[in-house]
Structure formats: structure tokens, C-alpha cells
Amino acid sequence: MRLPKFHMPAFILLTTVVGAIIYALFVFAHVDYLFFAGYVVLQFIVLAIAWNILGGYCGYVNFGSAAFFACGAYTAVALHKFDGKIDDVFGDGAFGSALHAVFPLPIPVLIVIAGIVSGLIGLGTGYLTLRLRGAFFAIATLALAVVLQTLVVNWDFVGGSRGAYIIRPQTVPLIGNYIQYLFLLMLVLAVASICIARAIECSQLGFGFATIRDDELAAEASGVPTLRLKLIATTISGALMGMAGAPLPYYIGYLEPSSAFGLAYAVNSIAMPMIGGTTSWVGPLIGAILLGTLQQIATVTISSAVNLLIVGLLLVGFVIVAPNGLTGLVQDWLRKRKQP
Amino acid sequence: MDISADLLINAIVAGLMLGGFYAAVTLGISISFGILDIVNIAHPAFIILGCYIAYIVNINFGVDPIVVAIVMLPAFYALGAAIYQVYYFAFERRGQESLRGLAFFFGLLFITEVVLILVFGVDYRYVEAPYIGPTLHFGYVDFPLRMLVPCAVALVLFGGLQLFLSRTFIGRAINAVAQDQLALQLMAIDPIRIKRIAFAISIATCAIGGALLIVIQPVEPSVGREYIGRVFAICVLGGLGSLPGTLIAAMLLGVVESLTATFYGPSWAPAVSFGFLLVTLAVRPAGLLGRR
Description:
The complex is a heterodimer. Chain A has helices spanning about 10-30, 30-60, 65-90, 95-100, 105-130, 135-155, 180-200, 205-215, 215-220, 225-245, 250, 255-260, 265-275, 280-300, 305-320, 325-340, and strands spanning about 165, 170, 175, 255.
């Protein structure tokens, strides 16, 4: 697909304007359900684009999206719980009252902290496994989800296997309805991740990633610092996933390990880029909007298990029949039309 | 912590029996991932499929689950051959196995799990057999037959496959295809056929592994996920493609998991395998008895 070439500042401006228009339309429609459904679709856009930074650009498969996502969510829960424990831990001293001035942290701050934590986990996992063949990284991320879930289940502070309740305020100053606030945050995250993905594509970093994807050995031999690039990709990707997870406890109000670590997040964040196409940020965006909306409709009309089955079947069907996704199909079609 | 001797010995014995069973579950991965370089992360899903087939036949006709597994071997073999054929034409031939092949197997894993949930729900299912329940006692060491029988079956399966891979023509060809595909072609052997046979065998072991699993513990569709980390940890620790290494690693993991479960609580056991995996990858990626 040949898109018009914009310079980066123009691109950021354009996506921000599109985001603002979407928000205005949603506010204008004034249906709470739209915000709830839209939040989920936006969350998948962030997850899919984040996955694609490592998976699509570098060619390394991350099966642990749910782990990074849940890590962000549980960072938020832990900080929220910590707010209630300040008096028990520090008493009435100066430090305790200083903490009271800062806590409870606003969600944007939680998002940043969650991003840092998940990014560090990505960096650690990557450092241990990315020096080896790609398959090892994929396996390690699969196992990572199981282990982090084990840790959270055994961690009573964040509720353990019983889960944790988060009571969210009804309204927020300036914006009003709380779900509108969460929707706006996720919209900003989505716009930001699109811009980050596009900035990577246009930069030297993106070319470096592409050399890894195409032929890592040749890249290494010609002096591309492959390990460092892979670690950068893993960290950015993990951080974005964690950021997408941070507002989750406030969105659902009750977080338990098996829902936060659900396989649905992992399979969706792989299926969406695969179905949309993995070469640029457009693919995951299209895939996330299509699959996300489809799932919102299917969950309401059929059942949530059936909609997961649909995602699985679509994933397998697309990787076999259309390995370059929808954008690949469109590209092929345009090329054929040009040369009759 | 108070560690009494008989508790310790019982935990170690239980771990060894568990390890024998883990070896049977990992066998297939040792062949597909270790020898053929096919990262079949859907392997545990096929094991759960084996569980449910053993369960259906056992509940409806009262047939022993292990007998069911042996009868089902050809069906799983055919399934494995079919999957390899799809995998070969869609990914391996195009050189896309690293990204899309992985996604393909992940999709298979997911589909199998969701279909099982849709059909059977998330209730735990179990089988009935005469050896589930009684326990042998030697001194103060217990041998629950529920663990001892699967361990014995696993060791027989293990020995059989090791003999097959080292003594027969096809078995040696399977080892050869891992080392030099071109040389195999020059010997007028079709490497794709050999790989198909090997992959089909790896899936066939899932029938037995599944029956053993449902003898050991009640099963629900998402149990397989715990085994992903476990089987790959064992396979990597043992050394890719080395069956004796796999057996040693499986025993080791079984004992450590059993000790962890006994002294720290069973909810920590799944974390052990990941620790094994990470330490192995960081310290000695070739594993205990690796080929490279």
C-alpha cells in the first residue's frame, strides 16, 4: 500500500487530529457502551502495535504479551494497594505524610511506571534468551506468562488468586465520566504507539530491525549490533504492552490473575498483526480494529468462547493462505492491476 | 524449616516417578524440536487431546486409559503426518517457519484448547482404573501405583524409542536429517518423508503422554499450558535431540518440583521449570548432553 509520505512532525499532528476527531465523535454520540467497547479496541491497537515492533520488524515472536500486559496491570494494583498501607508501614512520620501528598498516583503516572517495569522485564528476558536462536526467546516468553502468574497468585499483597478490587471514582475533573477519562487515556496511548512505530520505521533503528528480520547472520557480519537492537525492540515492545495494561484494573474494577494473564491477550496481539500485515504500523492497526470490533460484536451476540475460536481459526487461516496479511493482499492486488 | 528424613525421601521418590512421566511427555518435543527444529509449541495441546480421548473411552466403555492410548497411536500418527504436511507446504518450503510457523502452532494450541472448553467445559475430568488408588509401601517409602504405573509405561516407551532411533534404518535417518539434509538426499532418501515420519511419531507419543497425565491427575483444558514451560525446559536442559539427556533432565526437574511442592507448597511448582529454562539458556545453552 503506497501511503503519502509525511515528515514525522506532520505525521504526529495528523494522527493527533484523527484521535481528537474520534474522541469528539464518541463524546457527541454520548453512549457509555461505546466508550467501554472503544476502550477495548484501543487497548488491542496498542498491544498489536507493540507486538509488531518486535514480531513484525525484527521477526522475533513474543508469546508472552499477556505477561507484559498483566505486569502493567499488577504494577497499578500494587501501587494502589500501597496507597492504603502507607500509614501501617511509615506511621505518621514526615516520610509518610510526604508519601500521602503524592499518593494515590494519577493513572498517567501509573502508566509510565508500569511501562518502566514491563520494559525492564522485557529487557531481562531478552538479555537471557535473545543471544540464542529465535525459538528460545519465543519459548521463554511463553513460560514467562506462567511464571509471572505463579508469582502473582502467591503474592497476597495484590490479592493473590482471590483477585483485587479497585474502587474507581465516579467522575474526573475536566472530563466528567470516568470511563470517558480511561477511553481518552487509551486513545492517547494508541496515538503515541502509532507515532512510535512509525518513527521507528522511518529511522535507522527500523532499518536495523529489518536487517535482523531478513538475515540476522548477514546483518551481524556487516556490523549491525544485532543484540543491542533486539534488546531495544524488546524493551520498547514490553513497555508499551505494560502501559496498555496499567489502566485495566480501573477499567474492570476487579482484577484476578487468570483474567489478567488470559490467553486471549496473547493470541489477539499475535493474530491482529498477522491478519493485518506485519511490515508497517498500518497492519496491526487494521487488524486490531477489525478483530477488536468483531470480537466486541461476537461477545455480545454469540459467546466469548466462540469469538476466541474465531480468532484462532482466522490466525491459522491467514498464516497459511495469506502470509502477508490484509495489507499484503491489497499490495498484491494493486501490483496486478498495474501490470495487466 | 523442619525437614524430616522420610518426608525428604518420599518427596525424592515421588519426584523420580514424576520425572519418568515428564520424560514421556517431553519425548515428542525432543524429536520435533530437538531433532527436526520444528518448534511445536502446540505439543501440550495434543497431550490434553490424548487425555480427553482416554477419558471419553474410559468413561463410556470402561477401557483402561493406557490401552486406549495404544489403540489410538495410529490415529495420532496420522494427525501428526497431516500437520507436518501442512507445515511443510505452508511454511518450511517457503522458509517462513520462524515467524509464521510459530504463529501457526500457537493458533493450533489455542484452537484445541478453546474447542475442548466449548465441548467439555472447564470442569476437571478423571479416569477410573484399578491402579488408581492403591499404594505400595516399602519401609516408610510410599509408591502410589497412580504414579508408578505411568512412570513404568513412560520408561518402556522411552527405551523403545531410543532403540528405534539408534538401531533401525529409519531411526538413523531421522538422526541424519537433523545433521545433513543434503547428504540424506544424496543417499536417495526423501528427507521430507523422514521428517514427516519423525513428526508423526512425536505426535503419536502424545496419545500415551495424555493417557498417563489423566491417570496421574484430573485434567481440564488449560492444564496443557503448565506443560509448555515444563517440556521445553526439560528438552533444553537435556540437550536438544538427546534422548538420554531428556530422561536425566526430566528426572531432575521432577525431583526439584516435588521438593518445592513438598516444602514450599504446590502453587510454586510451575515456577521451577521456568527457572530451569532461564538458567540453562543463560549458563549452558547446549544442555547436559547437547548436540551443539
